[in-house]
Design goal:
single chain; alpha/beta; Enolase-like, domain 1; TIM Barrel; 2 domains; eight-stranded parallel barrel; 18 strands; binds D-gluconic acid; binds magnesium ion
Length: 409
């Protein structure tokens, strides 16, 4: 029987920071897991190297469920983004190993393909309507069949989700902010935002017609009452979803939103456990599960959340920003392809440097992502290149109201 012989925590920064766990077995099989927690990367790296790696050595790499329970229950201190990202990295690396040992892509081990590919949405944005339209057209030209729409708000400076004006073929990671410095600060005014956003969607529907699936991210900034009002005002524009309209950890707050609007709701990119979803799922207060494999304890845990959600006709819409590494994105794609209650997958393309460090086998064709058929996850890590990009501390921005009060970003 092969045992786990080594586990290395790899940190690289090809334009932004990524933490990767590589597990090696005694028969030479390797598996990769993503452990990247944007802006707090070294906390997970240390959790892994100080407290998890020593426990893995000598154990059986085939026992994925048992290892998950051992790390989760065995720590006594459960949940939280650092713990769950660390457990996710181990879990995903073990699925990668199991796939390689079986000679099968991970999606086959999860039950096989339920669809041809995973419908992906891209991020269009603009400081104003003309630049937003250009960005939407660029995304349509790139083959996206569903589009997230974010814009600047008149009277405010830089706000979340607006990448600046984009030329065709150009990409821009609007996060991280402030590499090597303290967080940058943005300003916020919910009333100005609530006045503006419905006019943006009216203009987009006017220009691009009724069919294109459109999404929007509220990024946790509204109260339940404000979110209810936004949901209602967007109903005529038929959104695919309104994401994180409130800080979702107040699960009861979503009752207010849900009772007032039929705009579909996507929640959970900052959640890390099934318990964060318990009320939302059982009371059917949401429509799409936003978790990333990377931040929710891995493939094992997210598959269970999706099976629980399936009972209530709730679908997936997994988090796929560029701060989830290509390893985390590949893990999501294997789950996307196999689960029955798939909804949509976020796809914010990684930079060329990132894709040289992490060589992926997933494809994007006709608006659909496919994880590929290489055994395991289908991602390879280039150590020499990774080492040439050294870690630089980087933080997400902080939001303040006009009077200086800190607000959700
Ligand atoms: C999204 C997210 C991200 C987050 C980021 C924070 O919907 O893609 O909101 O853009 O802001 O993952 O690290
Ligand atoms: Mg989001």
């Amino acid at each position: 029987m092969a045992t786990i012989e080594g586990a290395e925590v790899l940190i690289t920064s090809p334009g932004r920071n990524f933490v990767t766990l590589r597990i090696t077995t005694s028969d030479g099989t390797t598996g990769l897991g993503d452990a990247t927690l944007n802006g707090r990367e070294l906390a997970v790296a240390s959790y892994l190297s100080e407290h998890v790696v020593p426990l893995l050595i000598g154990s059986d790499p085939q026992r994925i469920e048992d290892t998950w329970q051992y790390l989760y229950r065995g720590a006594y201190w459960r949940r939280g983004p650092v713990t769950m990202a660390a457990i996710a990295a181990v879990d995903v690396a073990l699925w990668d190993i199991k796939g390689k040992m079986a000679g099968m892509p991970v999606y086959q081990l999860l039950g096989g393909a339920s669809r041809r590919g995973a419908l992906a949405y891209g991020h269009a944005s603009g400081s104003d309507i003309p630049s937003l339209f250009t960005s939407i057209r660029n995304h349509l030209d790139e083959g996206f069949a569903a589009i997230r729409v974010q814009t600047g708000v008149p009277g405010l400076g830089q706000v979340y989700g607006v990448a600046g004006d984009q030329k065709p073929g150009q990409r821009y990671d609007y996060e991280p902010a402030s590499r090597g410095a303290a967080p940058s600060e943005e300003s916020w005014d919910s009333r100005a935002y609530l006045r503006h956003i419905p006019t943006v969607f009216a203009a987009v529907r006017d220009e691009f017609g009724p069919e294109l699936p459109l999404l929007h991210d509220g990024h946790h900034r509204l109260t339940p009452n404000q979110a209810a009002s936004l949901g209602k005002s967007l109903e005529p524009h038929d959104l695919f979803w309104l994401e994180d309209c409130t800080p979702g950890e107040n699960q009861e707050g979503l009752r207010r939103v849900r009772s007032q609007t039929t705009t579909p709701l996507a929640i959970g990119e900052v959640f890390n456990s099934v318990f964060d979803y318990q009320t939302l799922i059982t009371e059917q207060l949401m429509d799409y599960v936003r978790s990333a494999v990377t931040h929710t304890g891995g493939i094992t845990a997210l598959k269970k959340i999706m099976d629980f959600a399936a009972v209530y006709q709730i679908k997936s819409g997994f988090h796929g920003p560029t701060d989830v590494s290509p390893v985390g994105q590949a893990a999501a794609l294997h789950l996307d392809l196999s689960i029955h209650n798939f909804g949509i997958q976020e796809y914010m393309k990684h930079s060329d440097d990132t894709l040289r460090v992490f060589r992926t086998s997933y494809t994007f064709d006709g608006g659909l992502l496919h994880p590929g058929d290489a055994p395991g996850l289908g991602v390879e890590y280039d150590d020499a290149l990774a080492e040439s990009f050294s870690y630089t501390a980087a933080y997400l921005p902080v939001n303040r109201l006009q009077d200086g009060t800190v607000h959700d970003w």
